[in-house]
Design goal:
Helices cover 7% and strands 34% of the residues. It has three helices and 25 strands. The protein has helices at 16-29, 190-194, 299-305, and strands at residues 10-12, 47-51, 58-67, 71-73, 88-96, 105-107, 118-126, 143-146, 162-163, 166-167, 200-204, 207-210, 219-220, 224-225, 228-232, 235-241, 246-247, 251-261, 265-266, 276-279, 283-286, 293-294, 318-319, 321-328, 334-342. The strands form seven sheets. Strands 1, 2, 3, 5, 6, 8, 15, 16 and 19 form a nine-stranded antiparallel beta sheet that branches. Strands 4, 7, 14, 18, 20 and 21 form a six-stranded mixed beta sheet that branches. A two-stranded antiparallel ribbon has the order 9-10. A hairpin with a 2-residue loop joins strand 11 (200-204) and strand 12. It is globular.
Length: 352
């Protein structure tokens, strides 16, 4: 299904680091067979497609988290609470116009994008000693824009496999990068001695995020979502909304987002490839007793709900309410004292 409309074309001239990635992609795309890469992710690198909506074109895909979750309550079967606010990422496509120099690219307009078959999936990673990095959302709306290129090694290839149902999260991980990975300046020297460099996929401050620490099995809810167009900041924008995610464990975590197209095939690859990925901001999952309550819904959450996506909308903050309840017998004697914590997602009334 194609969406119609008018949107201005944008021409980009990438910087030096991007030139290096382009050159690497060109020099290796013709010889990936040397790397035993039947199943490989080409995350955020330009990809030449041989079939699908981008057949015959070289396309670079880009994911960016614009709203991160701040907190969640540990999942329980009788009381399931999704992460709040719901994580949201945008997806953009760029066509490389000059294959030889790779100096110019054009952002595809929304009427050029077929959303059927596009999927985004998430992985869960624990973040150790990261409370100082949590912070509050930027601005009143809680939006944040995260570009993974600043902290993620763009030449780190993550293999991916698909079965009849799509992405198989349990795939083995190998470092197929033709060059040694680089890390952000200031990383403690002990990190490289503690972890295999190929296993470090991201960092939060000085805290490395390790591929082998992935806890995706601890996620509950819709871990694969389809995109939708919305009008965001004056532009027709393609977004993925993870409105139904909960976590089984307490702690501090972050999400990794990965996008692929079921109906497009990259040149030289039998299986579908990951076209883009990014890492989100950190959030904390609390126990029921420690859960502090929920803030009012962000402006972005309210905007998305107007496009028909089911979300919990709160006009006011939901603070933790504690009751000291004395239960009396018919004769008037008190049996004892108990505490109750109550949260209400359905009424727009602030609770004390």
């Amino acid at each position: 299904m194609f969406n119609s409309g008018i949107h201005a074309h944008h021409i980009h001239q990438p910087g030096g680091a991007y030139h290096d990635r382009i050159h690497q992609q060109q020099s290796t795309s013709r010889g990936f067979e040397n790397y035993n890469s039947a199943r490989i992710g080409l995350c955020s690198l330009p990809i030449r497609f041989e079939c699908g909506q981008f057949a015959g074109k070289i396309i670079r895909s880009e994911l960016c988290e614009i709203q991160k979750a701040d907190l969640g309550r540990k999942y329980a079967r009788v009381d399931r609470r999704p992460l709040d606010p719901p994580p949201v990422v945008t997806l953009r496509f760029f066509e490389v116009l000059n294959e030889v120099t790779s100096q110019r690219e054009r952002e595809l307009t929304f009427e050029e994008i077929q959303i059927l078959g596009l999927l985004c999936t998430v992985d869960l990673f624990p973040v150790i000693d990261a409370e100082s990095h949590l912070g509050s959302p930027t601005g009143k709306s809680g939006h944040r824009k995260s570009n993974s290129s600043s902290t993620t090694n763009s030449s780190h290839y993550s293999p991916i496999s698909y079965d009849s149902h799509g992405y198989t999260p349990g795939s083995s991980v190998h470092n197929l990068s033709p060059t040694s990975p680089t890390y952000p300046i200031g990383r403690p020297a002990t990190v490289s001695r503690t972890h295999c460099p190929g296993d470090i996929v991201h960092s939060v401050g000085y805290n490395p995020i390790i591929e082998s620490s992935k806890m995706t099995d601890s996620l509950v809810g819709a871990t694969f979502v389809q995109p939708q167009f919305i009008d965001y900041e004056g532009t027709r924008t393609l977004i993925f909304v993870f409105s139904d995610l909960a976590v089984k464990n307490e702690g501090t975590f972050l999400l990794r987002y990965r996008m692929f197209d079921l109906f497009s095939k990259a040149e030289g690859h039998e299986d579908r490839v990951i076209q883009a990925e990014c890492y989100g901001g950190t959030f904390r999952v609390y126990s029921t007793k420690e859960f502090p309550g929920l803030r009012a819904s962000t402006e972005l959450t309210k905007l998305i709900s107007r496009y028909g996506i089911r979300l919990n909308i709160r006009e006011t903050e939901r603070r933790r309410r504690t009751k000291d309840a004395h239960t009396e017998t018919p004769s008037g004697t008190r049996r004892g004292k108990r505490k109750q914590a109550s949260f209400d997602d359905h009424e727009g009334v602030e609770e004390d």
